[in-house]
Design goal:
The structure holds two protein chains of two kinds. By secondary structure, chain A is an all-alpha fold. Chain A has a single domain (72-304), classed as Orthogonal Bundle (MetI-like fold), CATH 1.10.3720. Chain A has 13 helices and two strands. Chain A has helices spanning 17-36, 38-54, 63-68, 84-115, 118-133, 136-155, 163-187, 191-199, 204-215, 217-233, 236-241, 259-266, 275-304; strands at residues 72-73, 80-81. In chain A, helix 2 (38-54) runs antiparallel to helix 13 (275-304), helix 5 (118-133) crosses helix 7 (163-187) and helix 7 (163-187) runs antiparallel to helix 10. The radius of gyration of chain A is 25 Å and the shape is flat. Residues 1-14 of chain A have low confidence and may be disordered. Helix content of chain B is 75%, strand content 1%. In chain B, helix 1 (2-46) packs across helix 10 and helix 5 packs across helix 6. Chain B has two domains: 2-49; 53-290, MetI-like fold. The radius of gyration of chain B is 25 Å and the shape is globular. Chain B has helices at residues 2-46, 52-56, 69-101, 105-119, 122-136, 143-167, 171-179, 184-213, 241-250, 259-290; strands at residues 59-60, 65-66. Chain B is an all-alpha fold. Classes of the chains: A mainly alpha, B mainly alpha.
């Protein structure tokens, strides 16, 4: 940008071709710049409208009751809006699925990048990317139709729609994400490190465990954080598979109601402008803050601990 | 003696390595197995439902009979509409980021915004669409609201793939064009964009696929369970494939009766979404072979 005079091309009597062109160049750059701002505007718009519709609840409902209340009875008069069971439900399902998804995502990434033959890699990688593209509503549907009856009969649970079911389906959703970002991180580790380790007499396995993975650990950390962000914000899976009961989970088989499920299930029946409507937007704020923190942490990890080598995430 | 021990430990190390490698290979194939299982299970249960009638007719008899034609139309309108809005905006943003801003502070801030926008949960996009497009701008639950919401949602996908495509254009192209006396804008329009176009189109396809499979963002903004007429204006609400699956298998009293329809709808959606992704993957593979 810098100083730029829009009249420079117009007022010069010489009709200077050069400055006319410069003027055009500047206009192009300006308009591209303003278009590029649209992502920031969208993000700001999301924050503004979430707060605009969510904050009115707190005019007469205390923040403490909202965050630490253990009862979610939004349809009663007056409504009770304690979201502690919703938050714990979200955290429980996210943590459980992460415990499963981290090894299931990182190990294949190591295999693809360090061990697999390049032809195998060319076949396997697209499959994992296709797995990432499966629409969440289809996975949620399979969770209801296939996994729920199985969990019910295999573990004798009261209902197959519960914490375990939702966490398993979420695992399927987040594994491919974690895998491809981890793979990029491993790919960015320079070959000289591997060669150095092998030249010192280390085996391939030792090289992977002691050299390559530690060198890529920040990228893998980013992958995991982004996977968790995806899991906590995922809606359809927890809406369809988690059971929908607003209780604090105490076992794998407790039906739960994570935050996104509550928003999606109740928005249609919450009268416009009611406390319930505002409460659902307030949950949206909490959810947004959670995912925002996960994302910021993910990119902080990526930026602070610059990966060894020339390229980074 | 010591030689034997050394051999022994080398042997066990090799065994350990073999074992670990086998385990890693298994973990990779496990993912493929999950994808295969999902597709095969859906096909096994859903293919018998697929017929010309299913694809070209509207639902009948309280949704328990007939087809899903209106849902296919609705999904196509929303996804393509979102693309028409998001693609030019996304490509322009990417051009600014890659060709003009480079590594400046402003570019860093915009990239941070794009990354965070990509991480916003789809239900939050739905809330934003409801409060901004549906209520504040007064578009109502309509195609327009849904298209705009999905456009915001797919924007980060398009920006990051387009930026990647631009990055892969070698600098020598730009330098050659500038050396011939072309201006920067000319260089970008005539040289950089044409060679980055296939990569950008890959992003466009991925964006459409993402929008077509999206449910939570359209359930408050565009989708309805049933509407008897085909949409005639951008202010009409529509039926959509993902929302159709969700409602059929969670609401109403006929859940078991409509089970085959649910599988059929899921197959159509999967074929659409995975098909588009496969096209994108093939295009990208070709590009990588070329460079």
């Amino acid at each position: 940008m810098g100083a730029f005079a829009p009249w420079s091309g117009i007022t010069l009597f010489s009709g200077n071709l050069m400055s006319n062109r410069l003027f055009k160049e500047k206009m192009v750059e300006r308009s591209l710049f303003f278009t590029a701002l649209i992502s920031l505007l969208a993000l700001a718009g999301i924050v503004i409208f979430l707060f605009m519709e969510g904050m009115p609840l707190f005019a007469h409902y205390s923040l403490t009751d909202f965050f630490f209340g253990e009862l979610w009875y939004p349809a009663e008069d007056p409504g009770v809006f304690g979201i502690l069971p919703l938050i714990t439900g979200s955290l429980a399902v996210t943590l459980l699925s992460s415990v499963l998804a981290i090894p299931l995502g990182v190990l294949p990434a190591i295999y693809l990048n360090e061990i697999a033959h390049s032809n195998t890699r060319r076949i396997l990688k697209p499959f994992i990317e296709l797995l990432a593209a499966l629409p969440s509503v289809v996975l949620g549907f399979l969770g209801m139709v296939v996994l729920a009856p199985f969990i019910q009969s295999a573990f004798g649970a009261d209902t197959g729609l519960n914490l375990l079911n939702a966490a398993l389906v979420l695992t399927v959703m987040t594994v491919p994400n974690i895998c491809s970002i981890s793979e990029d991180a491993l790919h960015a580790v320079p070959n000289s490190l591997r060669e150095g380790s092998l030249a010192l007499g280390a085996t391939k396995w030792q090289t992977i465990v002691r050299v390559v993975v530690p060198a890529a650990v920040s990228g893998i950390g980013t992958a995991i954080m982004l996977g968790m962000s995806r899991a906590i914000g995922e809606t359809m899976v927890v809406l369809m598979c988690a059971g929908g009961a607003g209780i604090i989970p105490d076992s794998l088989f407790t039906p739960i109601r994570p935050m996104p499920a509550s928003i999606a299930a109740e928005m249609a029946e919450a009268p416009f402008g009611s406390d319930h409507y505002h409460a659902l937007f307030a949950i949206g704020i909490v959810l947004f803050v959670f995912t925002f923190i996960f994302n910021i942490v993910a990119y902080r990890i990526a930026a602070k601990h610059r990966q060894v080598g020339t390229s980074s995430l | 003696m010591s030689q034997a021990i050394a051999n022994d430990s080398a042997m066990s190390r090799r065994m350990q390595e073999k074992g670990m490698f086998a385990f890693l290979r298994l973990s990779a194939w496990f993912n493929v197995a999950v994808l295969a299982a999902v597709c095969l299970y859906l096909c096994y249960n859903g293919l018998p439902v697929i017929s010309l009638e299913f694809l070209t007719e509207a639902p009948r008899n309280m949704m328990t009979e007939g087809g899903i034609f209106p849902c296919i139309v609705g999904t196509a309108i929303l996804a393509l509409g979102a693309l028409i809005i998001a693609f030019p905006l996304g490509v322009a943003s990417a051009i600014y980021l890659n060709e003009y801003a480079g590594k400046t502070r402003m570019a860093g801030i915009i990239r941070l915004g794009v990354n965070n926008l990509a991480g916003v949960p789809s239900v939050v996009f739905g809330l934003f669409g409801l409060s901004f497009f549906v209520t504040f701008l007064g578009f109502g639950v309509s195609i327009l609201s849904g298209v705009l919401t999905l456009a915001v949602l797919t924007l980060p996908v398009i920006i990051s793939t387009a930026e990647e495509a631009l990055r892969s254009v070698p600098d020598t192209y730009r330098e050659a064009s500038l050396a011939l006396g072309a201006g920067k804008a000319q260089t970008i329009a005539r040289v950089v964009i044409p060679s980055a176009l296939p990569g950008m189109l890959t992003g466009a396809i991925l964006g459409v696929a993402r929008a077509a499979g999206e449910t939570a963002a359209i359930m408050f903004t565009a989708a309805v369970f049933f509407t008897p007429k085909n949409p005639t204006s951008i202010f009409d609400s529509v039926m959509c494939l993902p929302y159709h699956i969700y409602v059929l298998c969670t609401a109403g009293t006929e859940i078991d009766k409509t089970r085959p329809l649910q599988f059929g709808t899921a197959i159509v959606l999967i074929v659409l979404v995975l098909g588009m992704n496969m096209i994108a993957l093939v295009v990208r593979d070709r590009l990588q072979q070329k460079h």
